[in-house]
């Protein structure tokens, strides 16, 4: 098995300092050792995660194609969290593997890419709509104590709870296939699931990182929303 390694760091400063790069290199080296693979080339991109124009990735794909190699990355989010870009790459004719998900198939990658994209867009949309509604009500934006004051006063609490519940239920349904795949791969404990969801760029309903408590809530919702 021949492989081409692709690493990505987000800023020029990280590229110079090696922050995050060493971990990616070690992950791919471990994968290559486990598969007894031959490394035919290695490329490092210094780009923003939102920028799909990546010359080093283009070179890596070309080398993989002409040598019949597999493109290997450390983590799925090292390529992009943009679904259209990831799916285009999937259909480019070059086989690629994420070291953290070596057994993922095209369907798995497609689902995760679409979920990541959908959740990012949904969070952005909910934020815009909430700000627009607050402005229409005459609420002064930018007050960090505003929400806390409303909660203490008990104003609007019922509507807020209903909106939050609806969003959380929808979020849980979107993540159901991801959780199912992770369990199939052996991620069973709350801590392991939280780490895996964070590694794959999945967000909580509030757009944050996963912890044991939030994963527990997610699993409870999956039982009640199916």
Question: Can you offer a commentary on this structure?
Answer:
The chain has 226 residues and is of the alpha/beta class. It has two domains: 2-102, Resolvase, N-terminal catalytic domain (Rossmann fold, 3-Layer(aba) Sandwich), CATH 3.40.50.1390; 119-225, no CATH class. The chain contains nine helices and four strands; from the N terminus they run βααβαβαβααααα. Strands 2-1-3-4 form a four-stranded parallel beta sheet, with helices on both faces. Helix 4 links the parallel strand 3 and strand 4 (96-98). Residues 12-19 have low confidence and may be disordered.
Output the keywords:
single chain; 226 residues; alpha/beta; Rossmann fold; 2 domains; 9 helices; 59% helix
Largest sheet: 4 strands, parallel
- What is the spatial order of strands in the main beta sheet? 2-1-3-4
Number of helices: 9
Taken as a percent bin, the fraction of beta residues is 5-15%
Q: What number of structural domains do the residues give?
A: 2
The Cα radius of gyration reads 21 Å
Question: How do the helices and strands line up, and which of them pair or pack?
Answer:
Layout: E1 2-9, H1 12-17, H2 21-35, E2 38-46, H3 55-67, E3 70-73, H4 83-90, E4 96-98, H5 106-136, H6 146-153, H7 157-184, H8 190-199, H9 212-225
Parallel strand pairs: 1-2, 1-3, 3-4
Helix pairs in contact: 4-5, 5-7, 7-9, 8-9
Briefly say what this structure is.
The chain has 226 residues and is of the alpha/beta class. Helix content is 59%, strand content 11%.
